[in-house]
From TrEMBL:
It comes from Roseateles agri. Residues 5-233 form the ABC transporter domain. Belongs to the ABC transporter superfamily. Keywords: Amino-acid transport, ATP-binding, Cell membrane, Membrane, Nucleotide-binding, Transport. This is ABC transporter ATP-binding protein. PANTHER family: ABC TRANSPORTER ATP-BINDING PROTEIN (PTHR43820:SF2), HIGH-AFFINITY BRANCHED-CHAIN AMINO ACID TRANSPORT ATP-BINDING PROTEIN LIVF (PTHR43820).
């Protein structure tokens, strides 16, 4: 596989608590990968470790073949990885317009197809709120703005951690629609979401984490049909 991101034998600790126990994991160009597992199994820690946010970590992570195992979060962002954290990622004291324009930069290959106008077409709700401050937006609008900001950076990979958590069903449906558009536009995505059915329906592959280890990994359709999945997800 032509991997964007490749993690090998990744470990992570919080103090003396050993949370990730040797995770192997890869995301190919343009691939949509779902990350599943019950609460507390290590999904967010894996993401935060890949992004360089967990200081106590071990193992090897490469981005486009370059070792970023010890890289700082801003270096990883500069190398084409955008992060959409749960319910955050917008500047509360800047307007929607400023939030978007501030994020704008070309992709690693010079791509600039996610223009300000295209982001607003994708999120008509933001178009109506251009002058509002980030803090004045609803949770769903903030999440859309956060995804819009990620798109404006022309990343190779977008990581979405619980992007639909706590949002109204209509907004959730809008966000899944946009996730589909991102997939179709060729940007790779790593998705964590409690709605495992939607994740499996919208992903090429999925990885199931159990107590800081990969318990299952494979094509999303095959995992969806695997009777072992229910046990790992506690459903
Ligand atoms: N900052 C932290 N300090 C100490 N322990 C933590 C910290 N963050 C997470 N943990 C612990 O690490 C383990 C993995 O948590 P993590 O948040 O990665 O799981 P998760 O699969 O993302 O679950 P959730 O869906 O609940 O976020 C849990 O036991 C959790 O209590």
């Amino acid at each position: 596989m032509d991997a964007i991101l490749h993690a090998q034998d990744v470990h992570a600790w919080y103090g003396s608590s050993h949370v990730l126990h040797g995770v192997d994991f890869a995301i190919g160009r343009g691939e949509t990968v779902g990350l599943l597992g019950r609460n507390g199994m290590g999904k967010s820690t894996l993401i935060r470790t890949l992004l360089g946010h967990v200081p106590q970590r071990d193992g090897r992570v490469t981005l486009f073949g370059r070792d970023v195992s010890r890289a700082r979060p801003h270096e990883i962002a500069r190398r084409g990885v955008a992060f959409v954290p749960e319910g955050r990622g917008v500047f509360p004291n800047l307007s929607v317009r400023e939030n978007l324009l501030m994020a704008a930069r070309k992709g690693l290959d010079g791509r600039a197809d996610w223009t300000y106008e295209r982001v607003l077409q994708t999120f008509p709700r933001l178009q109506e709120r251009l002058g509002n401050l980030g803090a004045q937006l609803s949770g769903g609008e903030q999440q859309m703005l956060s995804i819009g900001r990620a798109l404006m950076t022309h990343p190779e990979l977008i990581i979405l951690d619980e992007a639909t958590e706590g949002l109204a069903p209509l907004i959730v449906a809008e966000i899944w629609k946009v996730i589909g558009e991102i997939r179709a536009s060729g940007i790779a995505t790593l998705i964590v979401d409690r709605d495992y059915r939607r994740v499996l329906a919208g992903a090429d592959r999925a990885v199931v984490i159990q107590k800081g280890r990969v318990a299952m990994a494979g094509k999303a359709a095959e995992l969806a049909a695997d009777p072992a999945l229910a046990g790992y997800l506690g459903i």
